[in-house]
Amino acid sequence: MATKKRAKPKSMVSAADAVDEQLGLYRSMRDFEVTGEPSGSAKKKFFNDQPLPFVIQKHAATRLHYDFRLGWNGVLKSWAVAKGPSYVTADKRLAVQVEDHPIDYGGFEGIIPKGQYGGGTVMVWDQGTWEPQAGHTDVDEGLRTGSLKFILHGTKMKGKWALIRMGGKAANESKPNWLLIKEHDDFERTKDEAAVTDEEPNSVVTGRGLEEIARNEDHVWNSKETARGNAWYRKDAGDAAAKGVVAENASSETVSTDKGAKSRKSKRVAGKLTVPAGAPKEKMPEFITPELALQAATPPSGTGWLHELKLDGYRIQARKDGDRVQLLTRTGLDWTHRMKTIAALVGELPVERAILDGEVVVLAENGTTSFADLQAAFQEGVKKPLSYFVFDLLHLNGHNMRGLPLIERKSLLATLLEGDGEFVRLSEHLESDGGVIFQKACEMHVEGIVSKRAASRYSSGRGGSWLKVKCVHEQEFVIGGFTLPSNGSHGVGALLLGYYDGGKLIYAGRTGTGFTQKTHRVLRNQLEELRENENPFENPPAEARRGANWVKPELVAQVNFATWTADDLVRQASFKGLREDKPANEVRREELTVAARVRGTKSASHSASTGIAAKAGGVKADTAKDVPVEAVAAKKVVGKVSKKSASENVPVRLTHPEKVLDVETQLTKQQLADYYWAIASHMLPHIEGRPVSLVRCPDGSEKPCFYQKHVNATLPPGITAVDVPDKKTGKIEPYITLSTAEALAGLAQMGVLEIHPWGSRNEDLEHPDRIIIDLDPDASIAWPRLAESAGEVRRELKELGLESFLKNTGGKGLHVVIPIEPEYDWAVVKQFAHAFVLKMEKDQPGAYLTKMSKAARKDRIFLDYLRNERGATAVAAFSPRARAGAAVSLPLEWSELKSPERTIVRVADFEGWKGRLSRDPWNQFFKLRQRITPKMLEGLKITPSA
């Protein structure tokens, strides 16, 4: 991103006095002997003509709000936005201006202890850079007059925005009230689209939600030292304040790798770098938005993939332009000053100009990467050696490398880094079976692997060419207590886990996920019988005591988890079941072992392990040739849905399965999952292989629901992405697509009450294979007349030579669906549908209309043809509706139009109507081959463009 130079304001922004003056109120509100928040006392220079940072922190204090912060004049100008930002231009979000904060404040994610100012959980929800809009470059004047107009370049927040100070009564408030408003541009959204705060609720830095951050307590702003060794975060427990060990010591000046690094000359001798003929010339670009990986449930198998260890660090783009070196974060922030040694080593590379992509990490003693130690280095100033693992080459000596195949880029990169040192090194890869590599990687205790298509070009943003698969570990734990569900139901909220060490039960964390409706009930009953007042754990932390109900430590749980935290607690734990075969007093902390999704033969596993060194970066590409791997996928065998208890056979894990999603029928999340699993073989043919939009109602259909069409990290296993070019900008966007029963049933976990597929398939997005005529009646229209109208639509289509199929919308209307060969583009198909309904309106103007006006719809039926344009969707056959009753969009026989009452079925009544599935009124839908012919187009006076 090109950064325009802006004049420094009159009040010399680099002066420490100016910063001190602006932070006066902030400092007066805090006691830095008690809180470890940064005081902003470091005398760092900050110029307004460098890229300006912004950060939005989601803050669960007394009330949940979003702290919106713009870097200016050496501080973060700050506003508290109660509802968070909105991409809807009509939404004007109240933004209460609060005290200026230090620049260092923007990097914190963790917990401010209760009793301290702003106590609660803090998440870095988004971050990036900002710039004033053209014509509004005098920011100081804008702050004085109450009108700021700017452009955000973040991960979630993009485009033009405005902050406008309110007048009238609002101007007399103790804290100035402003309005945060989205301005018109390509990024704005309609009210029907998902709110960005709902669509992307988690941290932009770690991917965690507020509950996970609070549960892990992996960084607490507190001046008290940890009770356990050199853990990288602060705990509530502790003896005395560690003087001087506070956040302000995390000065971002430098984190040195070793004392002699700066003066040491490079000993690297690079091989001759020859720029390939296919690499076009270009001026060295500004910041390149990084390519990101999609979350996958299992690693890809087969050839054509490069598998790298997933590194747990900071994504850094290194830029060398002659003698100038920059280290930029994934959002374009300049962190060169925070990693001066790495910058110096990049500067020594034997190349004039280059842009590298990689990860800065801290290596633990066992050779894995430690995000805990990395955070300690940056946040607390702890001296830790940093290593830069480079995995891509984006620009080389005036040539664009991004269009070359990845395997070729990595070959050039290996030459550039030949003889690399200890702190700037190549991120190696393997090319053998992804399943075996994944298994061995997990046994090394790393976070997982990233699999990349060997032939892929470098494409900014999240796409399907890079896939990340995280390891899952498991072991038994003793249950020493439990908490109650927040909704008051008869179940458990979380289990308190432990293991024995020297006869003492050591607290290991908690798990609140993985329960089915049945296990909720059974566990609660068993635990109630073991209730006691005495705490069974040896000196448990404060986190363990919150809401705890203690029990005799007799039950043993099998638990999946991601890893152990620095303070010896399990991270992202999920309940798998009870172990009745193991006495509780035999449970010990185990060495991590992978809960393997993929298993290989004995010889294959051994061979693969020799190809993966037990140290990050020790994976050698050429060892893959010697790995005779032949992995066998472990297939899950799932029985058919039982009439007695479907929930026992659905292979998905639900949190709060008893949660009611439809008040009218008392439909629960578990029942919705059961329905999706049972209906999958009938519903999937209508949605698989197509982009789909989901209507999510996490709190049930009575509360606000939202659309989601893009892939993100919160989706259940089995959801994949299809690359869809944006119709305005052409930018590739990852849309949701799915094809398995497991993925469909997993949507229940997200509260998905509607599924809307495109009218075209993934392999041919621009040519629809169906037409939908949506009959949407005025409230005064009775069923017999609506049924008669649907019959008329069918007859008109037959006269043209087209067969059609009927379904209930699940609402008040009907859909007439026409399968067609995908020969014409969206424009022609939309024209066809429009011309068809216009003819019906012209023939019977008193019965039909083709404009969406509700006022004009009185006593008429709206013939909606707008489902037939690119990007439009219609509710899928067998999908529920996000309305009271959760009725189903059901395929109908044409003969059912003669019934005196319309056919309505609901998800909650599935047992009563599933007998209909034995006779499919659409059994010819996918077999029928019919075309829109030139004669049909001529009859409707349509001339397709050449």
UniProtKB/TrEMBL annotation:
Uppermost EC category: ligase
Lineage top rank: taxon: Bacteria
Keyword Cell membrane: no
Record EC number: 6.5.1.1
CDD domains: Adenylation_DNA_ligase_LigD_LigC, OBF_DNA_ligase_LigD, PaeLigD_Pol_like
Region (Disordered) location: 248-269
GO terms, biological process: DNA recombination; DNA repair
GO molecular function, one term: DNA-directed DNA polymerase activity
InterPro entries cross-referenced by the UniProt entry: DNA_ligase_ATP-dep_C, DNA_ligase_ATP-dep_cent, LigD_ligase_dom, LigD_PE_domain, LigD_pol_dom, NA-bd_OB-fold, NHEJ_ligase_prk, NHEJ_LigD
Cofactor dependence: Mn(2+)
Record domain ATP-dependent DNA ligase family profile: where: 379-512
Swiss-Prot/TrEMBL catalytic activity: ATP + (deoxyribonucleotide)n-3'-hydroxyl + 5'-phospho-(deoxyribonucleotide)m = (deoxyribonucleotide)n+m + AMP + diphosphate
SUPFAM superfamilies reported for this sequence: DNA ligase/mRNA capping enzyme, catalytic domain, Nucleic acid-binding proteins
Keywords on record: ATP-binding, DNA damage, DNA recombination, DNA repair, DNA-binding, DNA-directed DNA polymerase, Exonuclease, Hydrolase, Ligase, Manganese, Metal-binding, Multifunctional enzyme, Nuclease, Nucleotide-binding, Nucleotidyltransferase, Transferase
Entries under PANTHER family matching the protein: BIFUNCTIONAL NON-HOMOLOGOUS END JOINING PROTEIN LIGD
Entry protein name: DNA ligase (ATP)
Species, as recorded: Tunturiibacter lichenicola
